[in-house]
Specification:
The chain has an eight-stranded parallel beta barrel with strand order 3-4-7-8-9-10-15-16, surrounded by seven helices. Helix 8 crosses helix 10. Strand 12 (211-213) and strand 13 (218-220) form a beta hairpin. By secondary structure, the protein is of the alpha/beta class. The longest helix is centred in the C-terminal third of the chain and has 15 residues, at 295-309. It is globular. The protein has 13 helices and 20 strands. Bound molecules: flavin mononucleotide and iron/sulfur cluster (2 copies).
Length: 432
């Protein structure tokens, strides 16, 4: 059986699945049950400074986007950092860590942007036994208006400055959690690296309004007739998170900085995808909120099976897809495919026809008896028919042999060549 033990920036855990800082990690009762269910680590719900606890709304704090089967695709929340007293959280963290020394326990922090506030909170958490800190520079609502969370995460100079303070006043490993509410995620990651961060984690939630109540004319969740933007997460954000992780993993400026991947991880496969794109481990929130702590068990067995079936160690998975993430201009323009419909599997619904006909290609013919056939002379291989067909694998894409004539262009399929040397490119470099 593949060994799932993880060592992320020196923090050991029995598997690479950590719960992200959020309601499931807000208290001892939860975290103990999470560890019993099998989670390798948790990032405790974000702690703030000493003093009166933050105050949450007392109405609905979540808005949800459902799929057609009412599966939760995305959650929007307007919750703040922990609203429990600091000393209660610290006492509970110490107690849990004492009983679960083999699990990773990271403390997420968010305090005002001045050195003394960071120095004070770091001193308070020193004797909890926690394995590291995560700096919450990501929450996009509530705390951002107070100059914290994403208000810091959107200014690379602030990220660098605070990270330096943390490294100066603490010996703990420091993970900087990044906000996706920014144009180029590499910039804050570079700033975290300059500040001395041991790792970055991403993504925190995305600014969002999930829906509008068309009777109240207010965003949902609605609090006494009004709404405010919240942070979006869950399966819907995974593609955005994967891209951001990959950008950091392959950028020359940030390549090599350890990454904790977050955003829509629901199954072992999601986790493996994050890791293939460079994440050393993953963090999970929405899946645990939706399905409960035991969702980790599918992740553990699934990753075991996958690694075993590929005769691969966990360390060999991490970053394995990074070399294959390229800029568009490096893609092979001589890679030619054509759609093929399996007539035995086809149920004659006509979705492929409607999609192709009305998407400018007109490459599927509807013959008498609702027999659908690809017209290779027109097919640009866009893949849309595959994506809309309700029968899995009914339409596949066939790769042309080298030298085989593309019936659409009349040109034989050639060797690898990309846009940088294409004759239509006015900036074309001479082929090397
Ligand atoms: C209700 C809720 C509360 C959250 N609170 C925090 C928080 O206190 N600190 C933090 O760093 N992230 C917080 N997050 C963000 C999550 O840790 C995570 O980054 C995000 O939800 C994306 O992961 P997911 O798609 O698995 O949910 C919260 C998310 C939700 C849904
Ligand atoms: S791949 Fe695109 S162009 Fe070709 S048949 Fe399908 S939808 Fe039409
Ligand atoms: S979408 Fe799929 S099942 Fe429907 S007609 Fe096209 S090939 Fe057949």
């Amino acid at each position: 059986m593949a060994d799932l033990r993880s060592n992320f920036i020196g923090i050991k855990s029995p598997n690479p699945f950590w719960l992200a800082s959020a309601p499931p990690t807000d208290k001892e009762y939860n975290v103990r049950r999470a560890f019993q269910a099998g989670w390798g680590g948790v990032v405790w719900k974000t702690l703030g400074s000493e003093g009166p606890p933050v105050v949450n709304v007392n109405g609905p704090r979540y808005g949800v986007i459902h799929g057609a089967d009412r599966r939760v695709l995305g959650i929007n929340n307007i919750e703040l950092i922990t609203d429990r007293p600091l000393e209660v959280n610290l006492r509970e963290i110490k107690s849990v860590k004492r009983d679960y020394p083999d699990r990773a326990l990271i403390i997420s922090l968010m305090v005002p942007c001045d050195e003394d506030s960071w120095k004070d909170i770091l001193a308070r958490i020193e004797d909890t036994g926690a394995d590291g800190v995560e700096l919450n520079f990501g929450c996009p609502h509530g705390m951002a208006e107070r100059g914290m969370g994403s208000a810091v995460g959107q200014v690379p100079d602030y990220i660098e400055m605070v990270t330096r303070w943390v490294k100066k006043h603490s010996r703990m490993p420091c993970i900087v959690k990044l906000t996706p509410n920014i144009t180029d995620v590499r910039k804050p990651a570079e700033a975290a690296k300059r500040g001395g961060a041991d790792a970055v984690s991403l993504i925190n939630t995305i600014n969002s309004i999930t829906s509008v109540d068309l009777d109240l004319f207010a965003p949902q969740p609605t609090i006494d007739g009004k709404g405010s933007h919240g942070g979006y997460c869950g399966p819907a954000v995974k593609p955005i998170a994967l891209n951001m992780v990959a950008e950091i993993a392959r950028s020359p400026e940030t390549r090599g900085i350890p990454i904790s991947g977050i955003g829509g991880v629901t199954t072992w496969r999601d986790a493996a995808e994050f890791m293939a794109l460079g994440a050393g481990n993953v963090q999970v929130c929405t899946a645990a909120m939706t399905y409960g702590f035991k969702v980790v068990q599918e992740m553990i067995t699934g990753l075991h099976d996958y690694l075993d079936s590929h005769d691969m160690a966990l360390s060999e998975l991490i970053g394995r897809a990074v070399p294959n993430v390229k800029d568009w201009q490096e893609l092979n323009l001589n890679y030619v495919t054509k759609a093929v419909i399996d007539q035995d599997a086809c149920i004659g619904c006509g979705r492929c026809y409607a999609a192709c006909e009305d998407t400018s290609h007109q490459a599927i013919a509807m013959n008498p008896g609702r027999v659908f056939e690809v017209i290779e002379e027109e097919c640009v291989a866009c893949n849309l028919c595959v994506d809309v067909c309700p029968v899995e694998d009914c339409i596949t894409m066939r790769e042309l042999e080298l030298g085989e004539i593309d019936k659409r262009t009349g040109i034989p399929r050639g060797d690898y060549a990309n846009w940088t040397s294409h004759p239509n490119n006015p900036m074309a470099r001479a082929a090397e």
